[in-house]
Write a structure and sequence with these properties.
Helix 3 (106-115) runs antiparallel to helix 4. Strands 4-3-6-7 form a 4-stranded antiparallel β-sheet. The protein is of the alpha+beta class and 150 residues long. Helix content is 25%, strand content 27%. It has helices at 10-23, 98-101, 106-115, 121-129; strands spanning 31-37, 40-46, 50-55, 61-63, 82-87, 91-96, 142-147. The chain starts with 9 loop residues before the first helix and ends with a strand. Strand 1 and strand 2 (40-46) form a beta hairpin. The longest helix is centred in the N-terminal third of the chain and has 14 residues, at 10-23.
């Protein structure tokens, strides 16, 4: 499927996700796909999962996937993946499903990433959306990576 793509820029990731949209055998889903090369991150997304850069020097946060289209989803044969790119610097990259991004306040997410020991970040983020019963309001998927400029 992707043998003719180099995935060397954001538009090639959008092309890949468009191909996946056409070839997914069943169901619909959201997606964030990216590549980190040096200080740059680039990729594409569709749906309501997201990728955030939480900057180490201040309390700012860049939503790399802010321009993505929520619907139609991947697998609908009508998805419109949106390319994105950003600079890492001293930051934490957070990729997460809507189970986190829809139910937790952005300020609370940033606070956890800034204040909690790195290895404990995923569990603490999940706890942000945990109901009193212990259940979660939706599936939660989280990937966290941290960069420090040299």
């Amino acid at each position: 499927m992707a043998s003719d793509l180099t995935l060397a820029d954001a538009s090639s990731w959008a092309t890949l996700l468009s191909r996946v949209d056409q070839e997914l055998p069943f169901g619909e889903t959201t997606a964030v796909a990216l590549r980190v090369e040096g200080e740059q991150v680039f990729g594409a997304s569709v749906g309501d999962s997201g990728a955030l850069l939480i900057h180490g020097a201040d309390e700012s946060c860049t939503d790399l996937t802010a321009a993505q289209q929520r619907k139609p989803l991947l697998g609908s044969r009508r998805a419109s993946p949106v390319p994105f790119s950003g600079l890492l610097g001293d930051s934490t990259l957070l990729m997460a499903s809507d189970g986190l991004l829809k139910y937790a306040r952005l300020e609370a997410i940033v606070e956890v990433v800034k204040e909690v020991e790195f290895a404990a970040i995923p569990r603490r983020l999940i706890d942000l959306v945990r109901l009193r019963s212990g259940a979660l309001p939706d599936d939660v998927a989280i990937i966290v990576a941290r960069w420090v400029s040299t």
